[in-house]
RNA sequence: GCCGGGAUGGCGGAAUCGGUAGACGCGGCGGUCUCAAAAACCGUUGGGGGCAACCUCGUGCGGGUUCGACUCCCGCUCCCGGCACCA
């Protein structure tokens, strides 16, 4: 008998069947031409490691949930997937396992990863799959490089760069964390002076900063991190005359208002004027200082906190406001790479200058005083801008802001300075000296110089043989595309962040053989409506992608200024206190989950475990609550007759009310990413349904509505079990069904709890209509024995009444 | 050091335009079923007091505002994340 057969819920018996059905029916295929409103849902494409855990699956479950939910709400959903498949881990793994090729390792991982996604029921439009290491993808990455090159945004320059001695390649600034390599937390990055490729991201600094205002649906902290990373400051460049020389010394300061307090100057060790400024008497000491600082890594320079070092050059500059002669020092607390590499030091109003002046006995002169006239502490710098000028000649008495403008204007009219801005952001170093990346499509010709590879010769494919490109002459020896003479291919590859900076565009037109994408299709689908991924990409990937979007907008290929409309950053999953990973021995694999509790229970649990933006601790027994919930749902939907009637008095209107309250709650929670409370609401509904049956409730239309609604609301989280139930109670696929419609009338309560307080303390609860008028409420409250006792013959001096919530009698 | 986020039962967490603190779940306890156990199901579960109706304390700590504070304000402690000589 059919009923007997389906009395038990066995996830392994139904899950593969529905996974096949969804694929056969093309459930997640996105149509470019559709009557429906588009919704571009994207999860960050992963680097395909071999052993994904349920921790990794968390954001794919979130993405799948949103995609399924939006489809049911009537959107044409684009929900694609791909692989960030270039990069060093593949090379390192290949090296470790002998003669394995990075490509083979990567492609095997992709297969395994994809299988695990599929077995937990995650659907994508696989027709649009993108693989960064495939020639038909990196061909277009190279195409985009050449676009940047033509637009003057890619350049080659000798520069001191960050070098990771383990990976044997350079790193972008963004990939250096406190002086350590981002991939090896115990490996110090070295400084090397090399010729490298850069992207002029600093040209876009203002737009990258200003357009953050277009992103109200990004997490505040990500916006803040980007803002700080770009680090725009407004200041003034000032030329300080040098004593006894014609040329000046240019400095950058954000505090020109403190110029009367500038009692010395400091040059960075790299400053070009340093050798010519150094006097004979100081030369030996300066040489020794430079020698010492050159051998220091960044981390060592940073660790000199609490003890700044420096040497006087013997030269002097003239303070243009006070006409004083002030000494010029060299110190490595001034960076050669920021501003002009030289500063005016105002020890009274800058902590670093203060510390330096204290150490070397240089004069400290206060020129700003708190506006309130308070005395300032003598043992530290007064750095507030809320003050007025003192000891500042004709400017004395002005506020800091007024003085900034006045001095700026004065210097500009004299031609000795100008107001300007600076950024912390540096140009993006994109070249890497390894094998497993997209080759930079440039040819070095001894006669023609840097020659871009013609577009019709793309892609410049990687040689089949796995070895550093610069070691493979048979690959890099070529002919110049312009003059035909002997030439050499660029042997650097591109940073993998290049691949991920535009993949979301390729998804809109993944099969295009003529161009990276058709602008019309890209503009149809873009921007990404919902982007979900880890916070670890808050700066790097998201900043680079925004940069690409803007460059392509300038090139006329895109119309939107920003690629990602709404961003969600999910937390990590830990187990036994550490981030879940196969290598740490604390991972739970998708296979284990599917074979144990089933994909649906795992998905529901991942959503229920905690707020999705928080890190959460996986609990092996915590999941049982979700398993029980699914079993209960199964029994309610398919075998309600097995639930024992233990009382009478079922209320059909109450059930219907609960159903509609749940529709509203779950819909709002899905929209607002409160998946944990959505699960709780569905559990509540199933509890109410169970009580309804236990109280002898009938199983007519109201009951059916509750089963259908619960199935639809649960489907995005637990698609297999709901699909199986739907095949018994509904038409077509549950995945294709429409989202339930909320009925406000059905959801409204005729009677609500009214809390009665006496002096702010809860004394009783009354069942009353929600809009009960105050006099009636007061009358009922005063009739309550508990209230009579608490009032103790006193009269209410005051009554606070909030209809539908509480009445508070204040004696 | 600076910026941001947080602290609620045994545990994960709900509830923040100020209005029943602890939804939902885990675990615990008691029970049904069973030869027994598991599973499932039912009941119960913040602390203290009381036979009970009830009373009382309780959202990191100390103050304050309010009829009423997990929620707002002031001052702390601790935890997490980001940045860290950017002039």
UniProtKB/TrEMBL annotation:
- Methionyl/Leucyl tRNA synthetase domain span: 45-181
Q: Which GO terms describe its molecular function?
A: aminoacyl-tRNA deacylase activity; ATP binding; leucine-tRNA ligase activity
Q: Which residues form the Methionyl/Valyl/Leucyl/Isoleucyl-tRNA synthetase anticodon-binding domain?
A: 655-776
Supply the SUPFAM superfamilies for this chain: Anticodon-binding domain of a subclass of class I aminoacyl-tRNA synthetases, Nucleotidylyl transferase, ValRS/IleRS/LeuRS editing domain
Cellular localisation: Cytoplasm
Q: Does the keyword Cell membrane apply?
A: no
Per the record, its GO cellular-component terms are: cytosol
Q: What class of enzyme is it?
A: ligase
Query: Boundaries of each Aminoacyl-tRNA synthetase class Ia domain copy?
Result: 425-618
**Catalytic activity annotation:** tRNA(Leu) + L-leucine + ATP = L-leucyl-tRNA(Leu) + AMP + diphosphate
Q: Where does ATP bind?
A: 582
Q: Which UniProt keywords apply?
A: Aminoacyl-tRNA synthetase, ATP-binding, Cytoplasm, Ligase, Nucleotide-binding, Protein biosynthesis
As recorded in UniProt, its EC number(s) are 6.1.1.4
- Listed GO biological process terms: leucyl-tRNA aminoacylation
Record domain Leucyl-tRNA synthetase editing: where:
227-411
Q: Family, per the entry?
A: Belongs to the class-I aminoacyl-tRNA synthetase family.
Name under which the protein is recorded: Leucine--tRNA ligase
